[in-house]
Write a structure and sequence with these properties.
Order of helices and strands: HHEHHEHHEEHEEEHE
Distance between the termini: 22 Å
Number of domains: 2
Mean pLDDT: 76
Number of strands: 8
Oligomer: single chain
Strand content: 5-15%
Length: 245
């Protein structure tokens, strides 16, 4: 691997990992969460600066884009990029999944499970908690996608498979990427569940099946399903087009 390409991979991966850590340990700390998002963007931005150096050195390979040759609208081209679709599909799936688990938690509405209290305070709490949680889940899926991309060296690994760490002899099929991304999501979630439980951010009701007391099985079950589901939906819409010239 060329030194500048290696540098770009290291910068992006470090930014994504550090930013993801800040985001998912900042559940009850909005400044920390936004700092994490900033670190991720900074890592991607520094990677773009390395791209400029690669262009000067004549080593830059344009990335594939998601584009039907007949699509000329730049807004539509942007909307069907895989990362955008992962956020959209991930948000809606996880929003409904988060809401469906409300009876399994305590401490979510002044210490009791929420079953339909219709007050302005509760509606505001609903927006803050569940929309935010669904957005964080969607960011987790994007982070898993980017880390899987770094491992398989292929942006469209969910359609084409890839090569482990860029080694030609280690070509793998898309299901390997599904497995890697799912493991990343579940590992982050288990850490988050244990951390939030220890901080007293919530408690499980008697309806929640648990593992080792601190790990709720329904959120883990959701992230065993959602990465593959979201990436399969993304694959239906987003297909690699010709390289940018």
């Amino acid at each position: 691997m060329k030194p500048l390409v290696l540098l770009r991979t290291l910068v992006r991966t470090a930014g994504i990992l550090a930013g993801a850590f800040l985001v998912f340990t900042g559940l009850a700390n909005l400044p920390r969460m936004f700092l994490g998002i900033g670190v991720i963007l900074a890592g991607l931005g520094l990677g773009a600066l390395v791209n400029a150096a690669l262009r000067k050195a004549g080593q830059y390979i344009p990335p594939e884009i998601v584009a039907d040759p007949g699509i000329r609208n730049p807004v539509l081209r942007f909307l069907i990029q895989p990362e955008i679709l992962i956020v959209v599909f991930g948000f809606f799936f996880n929003f409904f999944w988060e809401v469906s688990q409300i009876p399994l938690y305590e401490g979510i509405n002044r210490g009791i499970p929420y079953f339909g209290e219709n007050t302005v305070e509760m509606k505001l709490f609903f927006v803050r908690t569940f929309w935010r949680a669904a957005f964080l889940d969607a960011l987790l899926l994007v982070g898993a996608h980017l880390l899987t991309l770094a491992i398989l060296r292929e942006r469209f690994w969910f359609s084409k498979g890839g090569r482990l760490f860029g080694i030609r002899s280690l070509t793998v099929r898309p299901w390997v990427g599904f497995g890697i991304s799912t493991l990343i999501c579940v590992a982050f979630l288990i850490y988050l569940e244990i951390s939030a439980f220890d901080q007293g951010l919530w408690a499980y009701s008697r309806l929640m099946p648990t593992l080792f007391t601190k790990i709720g099985l329904t959120p883990v079950g959701g992230l065993l399903v959602s990465p593959t589901l979201v990436f399969l939906l993304t694959r239906r819409v987003s297909r690699p087009g010709p390289p940018l010239s």
